Amino acid sequence: MGPTAVGKSELAVALAQHLDGEIISADARAIYKDLNIGTAKPPAHLREKVPHHLIDFLDPTEHYDVMRFRGDALKAIEEIRARGKVPIVVGGSTLYISALTGTFFAGPKADTQVRRRLEAEPQERLRKRLEEIDPEAAHRIHPNDRVRTVRALEVYELTGVPISRWHKASKVPFPYKFTKIGLTLDRRVLYERINARVDQMLAAGLLEEAKILKAKLTPEMPAYRTIGYEELFEYLDGKISYDEAVRLIKKHTREYAKRQIIYFKREPEVHWIDVTGKSPEEALERVLMVLQELGHPT
What we know:
Elements: H1 8-19, E1 21-25, H2 44-47, E2 52-53, H3 66-82, E3 86-90, H4 94-101, H5 112-119, H6 123-133, H7 135-140, H8 146-159, H9 163-169, E4 180-184, H10 187-203, H11 206-214, H12 230-236, H13 242-265, E5 270-274, H14 280-293
Parallel strand pairs: 1-2, 1-3, 4-5
Helix pairs in contact: 1-14, 3-4, 5-8, 6-8, 10-13, 11-12, 12-13
């Protein structure tokens, strides 16, 4: 685990080759077909070396949530183990990771913008919406309990999962334990990598990909709200300039990386490896040392 652009994909493939493993992606956007350049999916040459799961299997118009990921990841883990291989989960989607490590709770962290928008609406309208999307929570929450009503709707908007399902799932531990490896990188170097990668994406045809996607996506779809695409959609709508769109993509990606770092630092029992200045071979050697220290066969 670790922030975007830290080097997870390359290191995971090298580790999988060494351990005879297969990779399960824990990326909430890499699941979608056609979102290729902007999601920084593992490139073809890496995916040819090692089997990857939960990548490129869903149409971008479809909905997918963390609960479905949890079930799909469990199925993939069991199938990989049945083949005698080592399952390696790789990703930066904080909710997806926490759904597997057992640290998730009854919904995601509060989102200021979403909460303010909901709080501005009349209680009657909020209540009606809650009854439609989550009758179980509506039965449990008093009609005049504005705080819990807003929270329930906020959770649904952020994850697509009713809060009643979050409560149930948080009581059921994931049946497997993980050795957690976290990658860190000097913040300045990380941000330089992010900015450079955005430039590379644009040179590779990100704008053209965004034009195609815009014709089939609508703003309420999760795929629409993907960093790199949403900013270019605004440019294509004439709301901002191209240069402003590029600036915002870089800014929003850096902010996302910062949120990932903060979130993953809260994960217990993570073995952190600073990859600043390390070659891929040196980073792999450090991971193998950690595994050996923990008594895992390498």
